[in-house]
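User: Could you go from structure to sequence for me? I need the amino acid at each position, not a summary. Structure tokens:
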């Protein structure tokens, strides 16, 4: 089935006057997602917050069914989160890491994960970087050798936010499965851009945000935790009446499944919105989305290479919808500002967000143009034309 581009662009109000390529930061919501959130807020205004949660329970809880369908998991293995950073921290802190324990990490980790790893080192945890292969992606052979020593956790990012590289996460899961290590996968840039399958990946945790390729609200995200490992994890650092039951004066019982990683006070309108956004992506079809996004991105890369002063900085055997580049003589912020004045949106990842990656290639910042499935070839042509004028 092909994507009905006319319909999805009509469903996306900003497409009327904006060529939007900042989707790797925060993509544009569909009208149905906006309506779902607004309708829930209207309900709260009419009947109150507690009553609204009861009246619209099926609508709120649709998030779990849709997220499970997105990941090929069980609904009880999904926790709603305020974003991918919270999800990553909750997963990381649930692993019983003691001084001397070993954690392996890829070079594409985002700053939230880097901060957690720094704190782990301060507690005596041994954190080692997994080398890249010749294409810049995680070296699976090197990882296999490293896993011959006792390892507690492997942390990996599926898609690099800084250069569109797609790591071979399924092959990584294959080499981890016969070890005692747990596998924490950051799918922030993958969720909503390509099909996901936690069974094929064999990951124990997966984190994602709503605002990027899923076209969901800001302040939303999800955490997947494999049900079979729950008894091996330490209790969540933050626990309340959603996470656990206070069953005696001195004891509590954790909630079933991944609900133990949630707090009772959350944004139900955002939860409804994210459930709606995931449902929209499932209706369009993740295979269809992947095909179109990659086709548009490949066209954009080809045209960028035709501008003499532009260098495309994407890496990896497999690439996706994230297209990054630098220009001789014109800095990324100047380019982004000039494009914005023309009604074209891009974003500027920089070293503090993914220092391992940026320092390895010797670049401080890049322009990131990330076409989504609602973008068109005509918008890409306009982007290329305007960019050519900016960089000479």
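Assistant: Here is the amino acid at each position, in order:
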């Amino acid at each position: 089935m092909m994507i009905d581009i006319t319909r999805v662009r009509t469903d996306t109000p900003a497409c009327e006057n904006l060529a939007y390529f900042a989707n790797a930061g925060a993509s544009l919501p569909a009208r149905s997602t906006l309506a779902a959130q607004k309708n829930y807020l209207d309900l709260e205004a009419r009947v109150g917050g507690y009553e609204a949660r009861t009246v619209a329970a099926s609508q709120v809880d649709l998030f779990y069914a849709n997220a499970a369908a997105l990941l090929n998991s069980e609904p009880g293995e999904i926790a709603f989160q305020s974003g991918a950073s919270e999800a990553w921290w909750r997963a990381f802190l649930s692993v019983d890491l003691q001084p001397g324990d070993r954690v392996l990490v890829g070079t594409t980790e985002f700053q939230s994960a880097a901060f957690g790893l720094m704190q782990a080192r301060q507690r005596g945890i041994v954190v080692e970087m997994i080398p890249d292969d010749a294409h810049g992606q995680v070296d699976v052979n090197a990882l296999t050798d490293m896993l011959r020593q006792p390892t507690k956790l492997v942390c990996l990012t599926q898609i690099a936010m800084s250069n569109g590289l797609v790591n071979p996460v399924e092959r990584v899961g294959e080499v981890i499965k016969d070890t005692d290590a747990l596998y924490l996968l950051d799918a922030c840039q993958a969720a909503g851009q390509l099909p996901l399958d936690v069974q094929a990946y064999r990951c124990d945790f997966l984190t994602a945000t709503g605002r990027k390729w899923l076209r969901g609200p800001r302040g939303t995200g999800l955490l997947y935790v494999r049900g079979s490992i729950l008894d091996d994890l330490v209790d969540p650092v933050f626990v309340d009446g959603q996470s656990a039951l206070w069953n005696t004066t001195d004891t509590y019982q954790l909630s079933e499944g991944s609900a133990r990683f949630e707090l009772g006070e959350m944004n139900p309108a955002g939860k409804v919105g994210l459930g709606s956004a995931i449902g929209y992506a499932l209706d369009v079809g993740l295979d269809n989305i992947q095909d179109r996004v990659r086709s548009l991105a490949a066209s954009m890369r080809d045209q960028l290479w035709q501008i003499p002063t532009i260098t495309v900085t994407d890496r990896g055997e497999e690439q996706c919808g994230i297209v990054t580049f630098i220009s001789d003589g014109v800095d990324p912020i100047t380019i982004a500002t000039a494009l914005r004045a023309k009604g074209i949106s891009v974003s500027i990842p920089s070293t503090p967000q993914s220092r391992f990656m940026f320092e390895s290639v010797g670049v401080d910042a890049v322009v990131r143009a990330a076409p989504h499935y609602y973008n068109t070839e005509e918008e890409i042509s306009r982007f290329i034309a305007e960019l050519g004028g900016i960089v000479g």
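One structural detail worth keeping in mind: The longest helix spans residues 286-304.
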